[in-house]
Amino acid sequence: MVLDMTSDATLSGHLQELRRGTVVVASLTVLRTPGYGYSLLETLSAAGFEVEANTLYPLLRRLEAQGLLTSSWNTDEARPRKFYRTTEQGDAIARALRAEWSRLDRAVTDLDAPTLAPKDAS
């Protein structure tokens, strides 16, 4: 498949849109174990989710405001770090989002599979 400049930009926009929602699912999944923002960035990057800090930190604040994450400061080290963890509601939302992701993946796979020719109605 050959992409021209217009379709390459179009693809880039659609990929960004697709990734945007997956970062929420991935973050809620990873933060079942407490972690701080930078370690979450590293974990997501290692798993193939390229997220910038200026995207992730507002997302974490939004998820916390929605009651899906809780945070606390660890001041035991030289640099204080804010640790995040999913709440019970955050865990439930993550499970529901992953289930929906699986359902959609199956549906798209089914759409992509060769179909049988419709039987002649006569």
TrEMBL record:
<dbReference type="Pfam" id="PF03551">
    <property type="entry name" value="PadR"/>
</dbReference>
<dbReference type="InterPro" id="IPR052509">
    <property type="entry name" value="Metal_resp_DNA-bind_regulator"/>
</dbReference>
<dbReference type="InterPro" id="IPR036390">
    <property type="entry name" value="WH_DNA-bd_sf"/>
</dbReference>
<dbReference type="InterPro" id="IPR005149">
    <property type="entry name" value="Tscrpt_reg_PadR_N"/>
</dbReference>
<dbReference type="InterPro" id="IPR036388">
    <property type="entry name" value="WH-like_DNA-bd_sf"/>
</dbReference>
<protein>
    <submittedName>
        <fullName>Transcriptional regulator, PadR family</fullName>
    </submittedName>
</protein>
<feature type="domain" description="Transcription regulator PadR N-terminal">
    <location>
        <begin position="30"/>
        <end position="92"/>
    </location>
</feature>
